[in-house]
From TrEMBL:
Keywords: Isoprene biosynthesis, Lyase
Keyword Oxidoreductase: no
List of catalytic residues: S60
Enzyme class at the top of the EC tree: lyase
Function comment: Component of a hydro-lyase that catalyzes the dehydration of mevalonate 5-phosphate (MVA5P) to form trans-anhydromevalonate 5-phosphate (tAHMP). Involved in the archaeal mevalonate (MVA) pathway, which provides fundamental precursors for isoprenoid biosynthesis, such as isopentenyl diphosphate (IPP) and dimethylallyl diphosphate (DMAPP).
InterPro entries attached to this UniProt entry: PMDh-S-like, PMDh-S-like_dom, PMDh_S
Family indicated by similarity: Belongs to the AcnX type II small subunit family.
SUPFAM superfamilies from the UniProt entry: LeuD/IlvD-like
Protein name as it appears in the record: Phosphomevalonate dehydratase small subunit
Coiled coil location: none
NCBIfam families found in the cross-reference section: PRK03955.1
Cited PANTHER family: DUF521 DOMAIN PROTEIN (AFU_ORTHOLOGUE AFUA_6G00490)
Length: 132
């Protein structure tokens, strides 16, 4: 599936999908990689090593730095997919060198949980590697 390149590089992992936006500052613990926002659909789940898909970022601009801190701590997502990104997530992914794309076709939402996907941030493509 073809999307838009945001941050270069290639990353593979199990798809973790949030129907809701994510605030990295105060919403994700950079020391554990776990979503800690109360009531968030991903609350309690680790984003480390996953291909993290969510609509777009929300909250503080400091979220870019939290994404960088996650990478420094070895807890970053393998790649990020947004429906339509905005500067906080895009900057975080670029400075942390996390592959990132957005603007995928609607069929992307048909991929079942547990699918392993590869995100190519150079070309903007995502490919399905199978289910685990
Ligand atoms: C630079 C900021 C905070 C800090 O140094 O901790 C301000 C961030 O402003 P937001 O309105 O939260 O983006």
């Amino acid at each position: 599936m073809q999307g838009r390149s945001i941050s270069k590089g290639t990353g593979s992992g199990e798809l973790l999908v949030s129907s809701e936006p994510i605030s990295f500052l105060s919403g994700v613990d950079p020391e554990t990689g776990i979503v800690v926002e109360h009531g968030h659909p991903l609350e309690g789940q680790s984003i480390a090593g996953r291909v993290l898909a969510f609509p777009y970022g929300k909250g503080s601009t400091v979220g870019s730095y939290v994404i960088y801190a996650l990478k420094q701590n070895g807890l970053a997502p393998a790649a990020i997919i947004n429906t339509e990104t905005e500067p906080i997530i895009a900057v975080g992914a670029i400075i942390a060198e996390i592959p990132m794309i957005d603007r995928l076709p609607p069929e992307f939402s048909d991929l079942p949980p547990g699918t392993t996907v590869t995100v190519n941030g150079d070309t903007g493509e995502v490919s399905c590697d199978g289910t685990s």
